[in-house]
Amino acid sequence: MLKSLIVAAVGAFATAACAGDQGDPDQACDGNTFQMVECLKAKTAQWDKRMTIAYQQAMKDAPDKQREQLRAAQRLWIQYRDANCLYYGLGEGTIARIDAGECMRSMTEARARELETIGHQ
Questions:
Q1: C-alpha to C-alpha distance for 99 and 86, rounded to whole angstroms
Q2: How far apart are alpha carbons 39 and 12 in whole angstroms?
Q3: Cβ neighbours of residue 67 under 8 Å, at least 6 residues apart?
Q4: Residue spans of alpha helices (H) in the chain
Q5: Which pLDDT tens digit goes with each residue over 53-103?
Q6: Do 62 and 73 touch, CB atoms closer than 8 A?
Q7: Do 105 and 28 form a contact (C-beta atoms < 8 A)?
């Protein structure tokens, strides 16, 4: 049961990666629940793109001895983010969908910013 919920949540959040560059990243996600969730998906997709670019650059810049560790850390981070945000998605009521979406957006933004600073410290 839990495995199928995780698969469903990951699939739902993968849709965010396909949402494209819709909307202004500074725009508030207002409206009804559906509009708010879609807005958060679009913002997450923008941050995911930025995170991917930063990760690829960090991998390119990393010394050989750190490259594999960065790859492992990124894979584990994605698993953690997905599991952490699923926790919010399993909450009560429609607010749970918004909480899960905001979790994905905020965690992805934070990781993108972190990866952007690698090598620039």
A1: 10
A2: 14
A3: 59
A4: 2-17, 33-61, 64-89, 95-117
A5: 999 999 999 999 999 999 999 999 999 999 999 999 999 999 999 999 999
A6: no
A7: no
Q: Output DSSP code: residue 76.
A: H
Contact yes or no for 48/110 (Cβ under 8 A): no
d(CA 94, CA 86): 14
pTM assigned to the model:
0.77
Structure tokens at 37: 């969730």
CA atoms of 83 and 110, how far apart (whole Å): 16
Q: How many CA atoms lie within 13 A of 57 on its CB side?
A: 15
DSSP character at residue 18:
T
Residue 23, sorted as left (phi over 0), alpha (psi -120 to 50) or beta, turns out to be left
pLDDT for the residue 17? 38
